[in-house]
Design goal:
The protein is an alpha/beta fold. Helices cover 41% and strands 14% of the residues. It is globular.
């Protein structure tokens, strides 16, 4: 029989489409232990016992768990992150109860700091903090071949990047076709924003660009078309950014590339106030649907920026956003962060409205989290910041934002995803945020919802209304949202029903949804019933005949 692996690399990803880049780095750098090592990935939706059963079946060569094959020491390395630490803890509890002989090694940002305080670390045999690319293989060799390591907590070595074997050959063909391919041209970040773990980096380190682009070429030739760069500062060094963009542009414009480049999508995280002409010239040449920039704004409030050591030129940021929206085909995903020390609801609302006016395709609202190791905790006493003690450690209240307001904005963020960022209500959203103001005033309704002219406050009032009506933030069908928006705009905002129905109808048909929301039922075109329903109807008719 084929010998099962001695070493398993595993993690619980947020979704199936998100393969772990970290595990593939570890596998690529296992050296002579690589033939004894395998990757098993799961999602956080899997039941912990199912994960344990699958891990043990792999280690034991698919034999029943009650009859393990003994091939010597066995090792499982877990990648631990803020989004999976609770589920991973449950897995390790069950694993250690069933097989205490298996050595458990932890790594990842969630277990690299505050190691004395975590139950998951108590259960593990060893923890590698920080960089694990080379340190994991070294620890495994010691466990398998001796001498046995003396320390439980091991500080990972940060090697020169040219010593690290790049991981991209470890993506399977199925990964390239069905999943997002995570890549990085650099590590680290020179900025010191205190809410981010990158604040602990001294600088950014770039991989050799020729070596990196050679790997991208091999991925592309294998069929990869969905590339997500995880670099914290893609456009920090413009000459590198230009070469990377040119690489992808060349594959779009090469003779005969039409079919072979179909579906190409590249995502970058960009510094918002650094977009020189050389970069703009290349960005402008990309067709629609290829480029996406994630632009972290976080806050426009200058004193808050200064307080958290964030350097950002707001005027340049505005100008760059306007250019990207108006002069390029890039999709713009922008980030705001609510709960920063000293930020009030009103100052955040002003920043949201400023960003919304630039017209980005998405505004992602995040709630401040106390990531382990980040310097943001230095403000906790002065600003009375109270964080949830359970992952993801979200801010609960502060001196400038009470608990009730935090809950309101958290709901706002969820509803904004469903209504705005979903793209299902492109024509209805402007009506919800601003279009009804004049109608309310003209109709003598006075200061109704959104009468301040603030898109943020207009949506916050809709969010409050939807919460009061449903007391939930998920599980809404597209049809329910259509009817809810109709009721709100016609009832609360007193807009003419015919006008509201028209924009909702256009949005609903454009979304491709096939249901029949009551508010639009008489306007929807006649459709053939779904195949299964047609079969039932035909069977009923045949039975009557």
């Amino acid at each position: 029989m084929t010998r099962p692996p001695d070493i398993l690399l595993t993690t619980l990803n947020a979704k199936y489409i998100h393969p772990s880049l970290g595990l593939r780095y570890l596998l690529a750098n296992m050296g002579d232990l690589k033939p004894q090592t395998a990757i098993r990935e799961f999602t956080i939706a899997r039941k912990p016992q199912e994960v344990v059963d699958a891990l043990l079946a792999t280690l034991d060569g698919q034999t029943p768990v009650s009859e393990p094959i003994s091939f010597g020491p066995r090792i499982i390395g877990f990648g631990v992150y803020i989004w999976n630490v609770s589920q991973t803890l449950s897995v390790i509890r069950l694993l250690k109860a069933a097989r205490p002989d298996i050595a458990v090694i932890l790594g990842g940002p969630e277990v690299s700091y505050e190691t004395d305080e975590q139950e998951i670390i108590r259960l593990a045999d060893h923890v590698i903090t920080g960089w694990g690319d080379l340190s994991f293989a070294r620890l495994c060799k010691a466990l398998l071949q001796g001498p046995q390591p003396l320390m439980k907590i091991i500080a990972g070595e940060q090697p020169d990047l040219d010593r690290i074997v790049l991981p991209y050959a470890e993506y399977s063909d199925a990964d390239l076709i069905k999943r997002v391919v995570y890549v990085e041209a650099s590590r680290g970040c020179p900025f010191k924003c205190e809410f981010c773990l990158s604040a602990l980096d001294k600088t950014a380190w770039a991989f050799d660009l020729d070596r990196f682009l050679g790997e991208m070429e091999r991925l592309y030739r294998r069929g990869a078309r969905n590339f997500k760069f995880v670099d914290r500062t893609f456009n920090l060094k413009i000459d590198i950014a230009v070469r990377i963009l040119q690489f992808f542009l060349d594959r779009l414009t090469a003779p005969g590339s039409g079919a072979s480049s179909a579906g190409l999508f590249v995502h970058f995280e960009a510094v918002p106030d650094h977009l020189p002409d050389a970069l703009k010239a290349l960005i402008a040449r990309f067709p629609p649907g290829v480029l996406q920039f994630e632009v972290g704004i976080q806050t426009f409030t200058v004193e808050v920026q200064q307080r958290i050591s964030r350097k950002q030129d707001n005027d340049k940021t505005d100008a760059n956003l306007r250019w990207l929206v108006g002069r390029s085909n890039a999709n713009l995903h922008t980030d705001l962060l609510f709960g920063l020390p000293g930020e009030s609801l009103e100052s955040f609302a002003a920043g949201f409205d400023r960003l919304y006016a630039q017209g980005p395709q998405e505004i992602q609202l995040g709630i401040l989290k106390r990531l382990r190791g980040t310097p943001i905790v230095r403000h906790a006493i002065e600003y009375r910041m109270v964080f949830d003690t359970a992952p993801p450690y979200s801010l609960q209240e502060s001196s400038t934002v009470d608990a009730s307001t935090m809950q309101r904005v958290s709901r706002f963020a969820r509803y904004w995803e469903l209504v705005a960022n979903s793209g299902r209500f492109k024509k209805t959203l402007p009506l919800l945020l601003a279009g009804h103001v004049a109608d309310c005033e003209a109709g003598g309704a006075g200061a109704g919802p959104g009468a301040t002219g603030s898109p943020f406050h207009a949506f916050l009032e809709f969010s409050d209304w939807l919460w009061q009506r449903t007391e939930k933030t998920s599980g809404f069908s597209p049809e329910f949202l259509v009817d809810a928006l109709f009721d709100y705009l016609c009832g609360r905002c007193a807009l003419p029903g015919s006008r509201v129905k028209q924009v909702l109808l256009e949005d609903y048909l454009a979304s491709g949804a096939r249901g029949s929301p009551p508010s639009l039922r008489e306007l929807l075109p006649k459709r053939d019933p779904p195949l299964q329903k047609r079969r039932v109807l035909n069977a009923a008719i045949a039975g009557k005949a």
